[in-house]
Amino acid sequence: MGSIIKEISKMFLEFFYKKKHKIIKGSSLIPNNDESLLFTNAGMNQFKEYFLGYKKSPFSRITTIQKCIRVGGKHNDFKNVGFTKRHNTFFEMLGNFSFGDYFKKEAIFYAWELLTDSKWFNLEKKKIYITVYHTDIETYNIWNKDIGIFKENILLIKDKNNIIYNSDNFWQMGETGPCGPSTEIFYDLGDHLKGNIKNNLGNRFIEIWNIVFIQFNKNLNGELISLPMKSVDTGMGLERISSILEGVDSNYKINIFQKIIKNINNFVKTKDLENNSLKVIADHIRSSVYLAAENILPSNEKRGYILRKIIRRAINHGRILGIKKYFFYKLAKKYIRDIDDREKEFLYKKYDNIIKIIKNEEKSFNEIINSGIILLNKEIKKSKNNYLSGKQIFFLYDTFGLSPDLIEDICINKKININKKEFIKYMDIQRKQSRKKHFFEKKINLYYKNKISKFNGYKIFATYSKVLDIYLNGISRNKINLGDTGEIILDITSFYGESGGQIGDIGYLEKDKENIFQVYNTKKQGNLIIHIGKMILGSLKINDYLYSKIDISYRMMISRNHSATHLLHFVLRKMFGTYVHQKGSLVTNKYLRFDFSYNNSLELKDILNIEKKINNYIFKNIKIKTYIQKKQEIKNNNIIALFNNQYDDTVRVVDIKNVSKELCCGTHISNTQEIGLFIITKFLNIAHGIKRIHAFTHNLALEYIQKQNKNIKYISNIIRTDEENLVKNILLDKKKINILKNNIKKLEEYISSQEEQTLLENNILLNNINLVISKIYNFNPKLFSYIIKKLLKKFTKIIIILSTKWENKIFFIIKISKNISDKINAIEIIQKNLDKNVCKVNGCANIAQGKINLSKDKYYFFLSKIRSFVLNKINKLI
Ligand code: SER
């Protein structure tokens, strides 16, 4: 897939490599240690600290191809995607960067050469237009005077609303971070398209390259602090430049997108390949695949929320196209299978996981969407005058995630009018409320005081309960209606409220089949248990009776992890002594995390030992009992007491028979065998004298082991050995490599000393200066330094000129001992005797080296020319 794109990326990197840039891999889509960004949104992100001068870049010139996501945050194109020709949620950015090295002039000249030179992209010069930040006269002059772009084709871009640097030609990474004025390069696709460069680009003018002159750091207060070092950050959208070079007028018409669009069409067979829904899906499949490849799971928060939003938007558009079956994950499979070899290795490795993530989300959203459509059809049937109100649409959108477009589409087919204006009004209200929510969370204690709810869910998983209180956005209400999110307080409940390191339960509060509240989380505030969630069917009122039913499998995993935490605590104290103390713990349905005080280092053998001991307790099927005891009775009873207990004069004891007793209010399983398996996945030092252990239990532990096992098999396959001998063979290979390295070193020394001998025989002594000049046959130029070192030791005044043909290139070096380098200059010898077009040379007065591009005859001639030149120089030194 996409061989043209492959070719363009290769040319880009090659061009900048030739301009002395180090080629570096793009970074992950999740920025490393940068809380200011949700996703990598530009090539420069991974170099933020270099730009800011916090770290020194190992290379002053770098070039990359960076995968980017632009959904959410400062650079957010989500709403446009699919409906314009240019915007994509996922795209690749070609970039070159200078860290305190070249600045405006070179950056502009490089871009110009790559775009217009016939050896490279060969774009028509007269079709190129430029924008420049209005006060950046230096950049204007470079384009106009040095490059020769007509004044009419250069636009000065002003600040918006007269706010300084508030301009399209002032680039900022995010709300904070590196920023600076920019110059942008546009391409004119032709006057058959609408648009004008001055005020409305239309589809005619396309922005292809942004060159940013990074000069400031924007801090949290919005102030711009000048940076000590001036840098360059450029970015060119790979899909956009491909569209120009492929001669098409839209990103979606380039080869890679056309393939995806044809694949989608297998599910629908629309004749109209320009259909926007096809474009939305084609775009979203790429972002979904790459986000899933980063192991992001669809959820209601942060990155997971964005992935969920993208997958769901694509599925909504699938429905608009009439696709009712699963298609999105199948499309993902096809996309990965067709991928070109630039990305093959990366995506193939993650294939199973990517497909699993997308398939699960598609499945759950399909279920929701189906219920939503059933309800929409009911509403349509009930509707009077063929009309649906904005409130009705908003409800379907908010509760079932049906997109307004999909609702509109279904309504148009059934000739129903909808009130869009009213819908937008509800959307605005929701937006305002979610802003308020944050404020409400801080106030939560205030609202719930003076109430009590009872927990009975240690052994019982469903309870007949009465509604005591309902809160919507922190305000007490009598009723909660369909689609509302809120908090419900019951007199008695089986839901465990998050506390003591154990997360809260999820489940349903069901009055009957028609009135259901879904609980997303349960929290504990003082004496209250708060069920947080959404009314997904019907409504509830204060004093209603209902069943509070927890999700049992979710709870079981939590309880397994909680009992395993007690075993872990016990084993640690047994192994390392009772001075080991718990410093924190988190028990979830996925994993357990345990922090404890321990001053020595934790070795792998300790970890294996801990696992072994805990699994032995698991296999022994030991009973776990819980009971309430009087506080006084537990003294000196070898019970681990951790938290300030909530019972007045009694405490709850979790007793793993003959193993551990711990005071705890959490939920547990009733015998150790139910834990199934216990595996430590991480052990870390988190602070001085504090260690952290992460562990899995039950089927998640098994999945973890299987994954590790798969990796071992994979590695064994690579180094061609069986698993039993894997470690032995890796160590052997390592040894062999070291021996080979040593042998090579010795061989090189030997070859060098041989050459040195021959050179000494041809040594010329003139005016007390030794001249060694030679072309060595087939000699690795890396070894020049060996010979030079030895010769410098032997003679005080010496000029050494060595050259060789190695791997079809001619290399040379000139070394002059320091005491005569004021009289004879190494770099001058080259400059006076060789045209700079055929020779790349670095150096100074006492050393010059490089590569020469000459035919054999000319090379010999060059050496004899140098020889007479140097002899002549030495002669004149009397
Ligand atoms: N950072 C700039 C951009 O993203 C140039 O790379 O446009």
Write a structural description.
It is a single chain. With 878 residues, the chain is an alpha+beta fold. It folds into 5 domains: 3-246, 2-Layer Sandwich (BirA Bifunctional Protein, domain 2), CATH 3.30.930; 290-434, no CATH class; 454-550, Elongation Factor Tu (Ef-tu), domain 3; 575-710, Threonyl-trna Synthetase, Chain A, domain 2 (Threonyl-tRNA Synthetase, Chain A, domain 2), CATH 3.30.980.10; 748-876, Diaminopimelate Epimerase, Chain A, domain 1 (Roll), CATH 3.10.310.40. The chain contains 21 helices and 35 strands. Strand 13 and strand 14 (475-477) form a beta hairpin. Mean pLDDT is 88; it is low at 437-449 and 642-648. Serine (SER) binds next to strand 8 and strand 9.
Question: CATH topology of the largest domain, what is it called?
Answer: BirA Bifunctional Protein, domain 2
- End-to-end Cα distance, whole Å, is 70 Å
Architecture of the largest domain, CATH level 2?
Answer: 2-Layer Sandwich
Radius of gyration: 35 Å
- Can you count the helices? 21
Ligand list: serine
Shape: globular
Could you give the count of β-strands?
35
Spell out the CATH superfamily of the largest domain: Bira Bifunctional Protein, Domain 2
Structural class: alpha+beta
Average pLDDT = 88
Q: Give the DSSP E fraction (strand runs of 2 or more residues).
A: 25-35%
Question: Any idea how many domains?
Answer: 5
CATH class of the largest domain: Alpha Beta
What profile does the largest beta sheet have?
9 strands, mixed
Low-pLDDT sequence parts: 437-449, 642-648
Q: Portion of residues in helices?
A: 25-40%
